[in-house]
Predict the 3D structure of the following.
Amino acid sequence: MNTRTQTHFTPIDPDLYAKAFQLLDPAPDPAAVAAPAAPSPASVILAAAQPVHRPGPVEKTLTDALAFLDTHGWAKHRLIHPEGARCSIGALRAAAGARNAAYGDAGNLLLAEARRQHGKQWESIPSWNDSHTGAQVRGVWEAAIRRAHHLNI
């Protein structure tokens, strides 16, 4: 089967196209460039409509607990140091406010990340916390927060 396409196009007037594009995209007025215009109500609404990340309860608990450690200090071998520092589990408890679902899920995610980074032998957050440096513990916290963010939990 042979199909022939007719290619008899009507010639165009280049000046006509130039005028049409100038109407669609005119050169900026020098006075308008010197004084920026106030945003239109539509642009304000569009700017306000940008998606905002709302952390889930697990991400919020982990983030708040890490902020608690940053503010009050990190401790080993005790839940709460007399000067206010806490171990990882103590910070989780402070951030969650109660042993609720977010507290349990945040703890499970933190321990899973600790096992991923430091080996599967860790059976609890306190044993892992007490056996590592502050930098190692912080790295696990940050990775757990990223994972909670990624999972939107």
User: Anything to note?
Assistant: The chain has a mean pLDDT of 84. Residues 101-118 form the longest helix (18 residues). The chain is about 60% helix and 0% strand. The two ends are 60 Å apart (CA to CA).
